[in-house]
Amino acid sequence: MTIAQYSLSEQAVLILAALVLFTSFALLAQQRMLASIHVFAWQGVLVAASTAMIAGVYDKHHLYFSALLTMGLKAMLMPWMLRRLVERLGIAHQVETVVRPALVLLGAAALVVFSYYVALPIEKLSSLSTRNTIAISMAVVLIGMLMMVARRQAVSQVVGFMSMENGLFFAAVVSTHGMPMVVELGIAFDVLVAAVLFGVFFFQIRDSIESLDVDRLNRLSENSEITGVRE
Amino acid sequence: MALNLALAAVLAALASAGVSLFAQRRIAVLKYLAFPFLLLSGLCAAVAGGMILGDGDVQSAQLPFGLPWLPWQVRLDVLSGLFLLIIGIVTFAVGLFGPGYVSEYEHGGHPLVQLGVFTGLFVAGMQLVVLANDAFMFMIAWELMSLSSYFLVVFHHEQAANRRAGFLYLLMAHVGGLAILLGYGVLATFGDGFSFDAMRAALLSPLWASVAFSLAFFGFGMKAGLVPLHAWLPEAHPVAPSHISALMSGVMLKVAIYGFVRMTLDLIGDVQWGWGVAVLLIGSISALLGILYAMQQNDLKRLLAYSSIENVGVIFLGLGMALVFIGTGHQGLGAIALVAGLFHAFNHALFKSLLFLGAGNVIQRTHEQNIERMGGLLTRLPYTGVFFLIGSMSIASLPPFNGFASEWLTFQAALQAGALDNGVLRILIPFTAAMLALTGALSVACFVKAYGVAFLGQPRSRRARHARATAWGMRGAQGLLALLCLLAGVLPNVMVNLLSTIPKLLTGTGLQSATVHGWLWLTPVSSTVASYSAPLVLLGILVAWGLAWQLLHPRGARAVRRGAIWDCGFGPLNARMQYTGTSFSMPLRRIFSPVWRIEEKVDRQSEAEGLRVSRLAHQMQVHDHSWAALYEPIGRFVLLAARRIALLQQGNIRVYIAYSFFTLLVLLWLIS
Amino acid sequence: MADLLTLNGWLLALLQAALFVAGAPLLTIWVKRNKCRLQNRRAPSLLQPYRDLAKLFRKQVVLAENASPLFRCAPYIVFAATVLAAATIPLLSTNLPTAAIADMIVLVGFLAVGRFFLALAGMDIGTAFGGMGASREVSLSSLAEPAMLMVIFTLAMSAQSTNLSSVVQYLYDAGLVLRPSLLFALLGLLLVAVAESGRIPVDNPATHLELTMVHEAMILEYSGRHLALMEWAAQLKLMIFGVLIVNIFFPWGIATELSASALFIGLLAVTVKLSLIGVVLAFAETSLAKMRVFLVPQFLNLAFLLALLGALSHIILEVDI
Predict the structure, then answer these.
(1) CA-CA distance, B317 to C91, in Å (whole number)?
(2) How many CA atoms lie within 13 A of A196 on its CB side?
(3) Pairing outcome for strands C61-64 and B59-67
(4) 147-206 in C: which are within 8 Å (CB) of B?
(5) Cα gap C10→B593, rounded to integer Å
């Protein structure tokens, strides 16, 4: 079975999945705060759109609701909250320097290969036309994590965390066509609460160390003199 | 017949070494006896190699020397035939080039005996390596090759840097030799004997096979100059006389590749695809780093030496792909990759020797090694200029020359990765092919720099301005190699046809469809998948050029007027205002900056509150990371260990007696 | 293979190559006219590039005193290599014998030959400009070429052939299939095309400002017919990338058989598609500013990343295990 034998809407799901992966790469490469929030919003839109497509293709009506929820929460509300946050923190136009961006991107490409390797046995068990995207969603999760490792700015770390959540949700949609509604709602609100909490934390962090650079948190540790010397 | 001819080649090389013993006072001995013997040796070796490749049979014999229980055995099959052909062609060219080149040593008390004797021994050693059919003779020939080339590396021993390079070379050659010896040891243990026939029949467990493979990969990889074991190569190759550099880069590295292929595919036999992945990765890293390092060199021969690392990487990339394909049971695809790798080995021998001979010619005429002090040589040394251009185009893998043909074949093999079952390999192989593409593009950049700075523009030094024409023999050698580069590029089918007997010998499967459509078409997989017709490409270039020339070139005297260089109205431009090699490579230095350790020092003196710069000095050195990251830690560790062991050395005689005493006690206890 | 080399096939190949060479200045002037209109300037006539070429061919060549023979040969080699590259690309019809002689990898090789001699010619006179242009050209294209080859690998893995005719034929026969790999390959190739044909934001064909120029710096010393050939080759290069993009990714209308009507439809289709892409290019060039030279590597890294994602998504999403 090759791609030409799928229906057009199934092909569209694959395209959307590939674009979700691309937005993950874009998030990783984007160094401007506002722009990365925008990319994150677009990722939400794409995840929502592919959920809606899957709902249409497989006639799963509850997925429409999930899509709507994703659209409202991940593509609009959270980006809006993050945006307001960075504007109030005054870091909207800050440019964050990533160390060796090309290397980080290559690492992300390697993660895609790795998740393909890991997902292959799982995919063999499934017969859905979307099974090939399991690797993609896994890669989105891992790249989100890589972003949290590679970035020092607290807000970018939160964006990375959110994009991990996008990947998890996407994995659930493509592998089993959605989780039970209760679970989904629960996760959605968890993430929302997390976002609110993060907002509070940002102000706390900034008040205590006058920066959002998480590397500075090292100072709070007991042997701060040692780390200070190392810097 | 072919085997006798090959042995005759060895004898001729030894004869060349022998007559050189009398060359101390009379350089004529070297010019008119030693080099003609080399010429003869090269001719015999090339003919023998070509004959065996054409017939595809196996010839073996026993020599009347050796150990009582292990007479030396020689064997000539298609694999050794190919490498004998490589050795022969380059030796022939060197024999042609040498007489003109050594005439510069006529005065000045250079050790001519050393040069002649060790050149002959070096060539004989390489020929014996590919002829050997038992591990004992292989190792003796291998050491002969390594040792005699050491004496050639330190030919200009009056400079300390050269002695250091020689020592490094000797050290690493022996560490590598040790690994190879251990590899043969593993095989000999399981195969019950040192002859290759016994080793071939040996049944190894997968673990021991992997051990033998790792030792072979380490040992031969060190000799071939794979990253990170390459540190000796850019030190040793450039300091030898140029015709020796041609032999070392063009041929000796190939002999290491011969050893690797012989040991992995022939003697060990049962290939595991994991080996292929290791070779593939190391190969692509070597290719990429090699060309990036080459790009930053301004010493012409050092640049060429680093580019040898790149090409060895490309060859190993092909071999790694072959191992992956063969290890996963795709013998036919493995044959394509193997032929691609070996074809590139052949091609690299041709163009790298050509470039080293060209560099030798330029250095002899200008007495400069640094391209920043050359310039404008194309009009002064037109033959060398044209031949060096052909070599540069071949090494930059531009159609229709030979470097392109083998790189094209490598790409075609890589594109067949879709046939593999393993998903990760299906991704990995196209990715390494992309690395190969990057390497190819960078080598274009590198050789535009080398050629553009050395041969074009205005002369950058007085000596470059007064460079004059060279001896005919030197031109002839370069012309021969350049012609072969073109022929191998335009008629790749001839070579591919000959080479396809090698996978047939090693794995039982040759190339099925590469040349089924005649000499005009190269179709490695099938004609619907890919085809390349180099003769028609050459024809197309000539027709398009000719048409453009015919239609557009006006007749008559008004065709061209010579005028001054446009200088923006500021007055005449001088040679120092040209773009230098260092500035040429600056964008790439900036883009790939983490690859090097760059030490840059700018010394600026200014007047009038910093507005007017009165003096500016710029110093830059580009090092590769391997020293600081790999060798220095090892060196420190050895020193540390030595210091610990040195504690044993008390200086007190009674302590030493106590050592002996305790040793005696332990020994007695052991035997009781 | 020999059956490929029929008389009709060769005639078609010659016709296409001639059309390619003759039409290349048209595409350039079409982009220029659209840009003029967008920027409220008066547009030159469609025949202007032909007049320029004709005038340059008539003019006498002025060579610098120290120009070597390579400097005089280079325009012919650059032009010939570019024409050969163009001759292997299906313009009107997919039955192209030249595509079998030289596949997509050789096409990249031809472009590399052109670039090699262009850069060498830039260094021949020994001015700072020429060296600078050559240095920038080879540095940037050494990043663009792998991206382009990666795009080619993606296409070749889909169509299981590196023969450009077969690739176009395969994609044409498949009809409308939404392939993630092709989407990424298209985006990657667009970026490569912008960089390789020297358009904004990578290079500006209209500038002679020493800090920014790449291509113009190398041909600064050329005049007369040599300059004409260099300019023509640059126009051909733009056309090559334009045709590659429209005929691979949007192959609709291309002739799959050798009949006059099919070829005519093919001509019509490719004209319409190229004029559309010309409009898009003019829009893009008007709305973008030229990049700093050292931002271009990032641009090309993006191209390589897109091409790599294309290959990855082909293997992950499109092939079944």
Answers:
(1) 36
(2) 6
(3) unpaired
(4) 149-150, 153, 156-157, 160-163, 166
(5) 49
Residue B609, token pair as written in the block:
């509150």
Q: Tell me the β-bridge partners of B370.
A: B299
Reduced to 3 states (helix: H, G, I; strand: E, B; else coil), residue B187 is helix
* Residue numbers of the domain that contains B501: 271-350+364-542+574-591
d(C-alpha C120, C-alpha C124), whole Å: 6
Integer angstrom CA distances of residue C125 from A65, B576, B577: 70, 13, 11
Domain contains B421: yes
Q: Where are the domains of chain A?
A: 3-230
Q: Digits of tens for pLDDT over chain C (321 positions)?
A: 555 667 888 888 899 999 999 999 999 999 999 999 999 999 999 999 999 999 998 888 899 888 999 999 999 999 999 999 999 999 998 888 888 889 999 999 999 999 999 999 999 988 888 899 999 999 999 999 999 999 999 999 888 899 999 999 999 998 888 889 999 999 999 999 999 988 888 888 777 666 667 888 888 889 988 999 999 999 999 999 999 999 999 998 898 888 889 999 999 999 999 999 999 999 999 998 888 888 888 899 999 999 999 999 898 888 765
Alpha-carbon distance A144 to nearest alpha carbon in chain B (angstroms)? 22
Asked if B118 and B135 count as a contact pair (C-beta separation under 8 A), the reply is: no
Cα–Cα dist B58/B49, whole Å: 12
What residue spans of B56-191 are helical by DSSP H? 78-102, 112-131, 135-153, 160-191
CA pair distance B590, A86, nearest whole angstrom: 33
Residue in A with minimal Cα distance to C175: A4
**How many helices (H) and strands (E) are present in chain A, helices listed first?**
9, 0
Per the CB < 8 Å rule, is C318 touching A14? Answer: yes
CB contact under 8 A, B424 and A113: yes
- Count of structural domains, chain B: 1
Q: How far apart are CA C13 and CA B117, in angstroms?
A: 59
Q: How many Cα atoms within 13 Å fall on the side-chain side of residue A89?
A: 29
The C-alpha of C168 sits at a distance from chain B's nearest C-alpha, in angstroms, of 13
Residue B208 burial (C-beta neighbours within 10 Å; 0-12, 13-18, 19+): middle
Owner of token pair 């760059």? B598
* Cα(A27)–Cα(A43) distance, integer angstroms: 9
Number of domains in chain C: 1
Residue B190 lies in a domain: no
B413, part of any domain: yes
Q: How close, in Å, is residue A77 to chain C by CA atoms?
A: 29
Distance CA B212, CA B130 (A): 20
Q: CB distance from B386 to chain C under 8 Å?
A: no
| ipTM of the complex in this document | 0.95
Nearest to C185 by CA among C235, C145, C151: C151
Euclidean distance between CA atoms A216 and A14, whole angstroms: 41
Do A49 and A16 touch, CB atoms closer than 8 A? yes
B510 close to B500: Cβ distance less than 8 angstroms: yes
Q: Is A197 on the interface with C (CB under 8 A)?
A: no
Query: Position of tokens 């072919």?
Result: B2
Q: Where are the alpha helices (DSSP H) in B225-272?
A: 233-239, 242-247, 253-261
Vertex A137: Cα angle to A136 and A138 (nearest 5):
90
Structural domain containing residue C40: 2-318
Identify the DSSP state of B553.
P
> What phi-psi label fits residue B620: left (phi over 0), alpha (psi between -120 and 50 degrees) or beta?
beta
- What pairing do the DSSP bridges indicate for beta strands C61-64 and B560-563? parallel
- Three-state DSSP class for B621? strand
Burial of C319 (0-12, 13-18, 19+ CB in 10 A): middle
